[in-house]
Each structure stands twice: as C-alpha cells, then as structure tokens.
Amino acid sequence: VQEKKARHQAFLAQLKFAEDSGIQALMRGAAHDDILVLLHAAEKDVMLKKKLYGNMSDNSMKIYIEDLVFQFRQGLPDYRFDEAMTRLLKTADSLTKDGALKFTKT
Asked: Which pTM was predicted?
C-alpha cells in the first residue's frame, strides 16, 4: 500500500514536467472520472493544477470544475483515488512508450 501511494505521488510530481501535448494526450486517453480524480489530487499543487487546466478548452474546464464540486462534495474515497490513479498510470505508461507523453525533467 505504501509503495502504491509513493508511486502515485511520484506520478503527480512528474506530471508537472510533462510536455503540454502529452498532458492533452493523457486527458484524451483517460476516462472523465479519472481526470476528475487527477484534478482533485492536484488541487493543493498550484503548478500541477495550472498545467492541467492550462491544457483544457474553456468549455472542458467549466465541465470539470462543475463535476468536481458535485462529485467530491463529501470527499474522495481512498479506493476511488487508488483505482483512478492506477488506470491513469497505465495510460501514461502507454503514452510514454508511444512517444506521445514526454517529460522535460524526471
């Protein structure tokens, strides 16, 4: 469990250094609910939050913000965070292997 949490935190930290085109590919390839979990996890990280929202259209941003308020008004259960992060990591690994997700720093 501790190893999984560390991997999830490392993934969140690494995303700050992803190229914009890679962030966009991740958002296109991931489920809406998983992106919501990612945005929720990024709420306390100004740099990551700017990176994620900066790669959305205004319309997408409005939809995600509304959904965040609605879905997480009572918090985010740990199991939902873990499941979403696991799927996001798989998607990111696949995009990295395909060359669609690149990082300026690791």
From this structure: 0.91
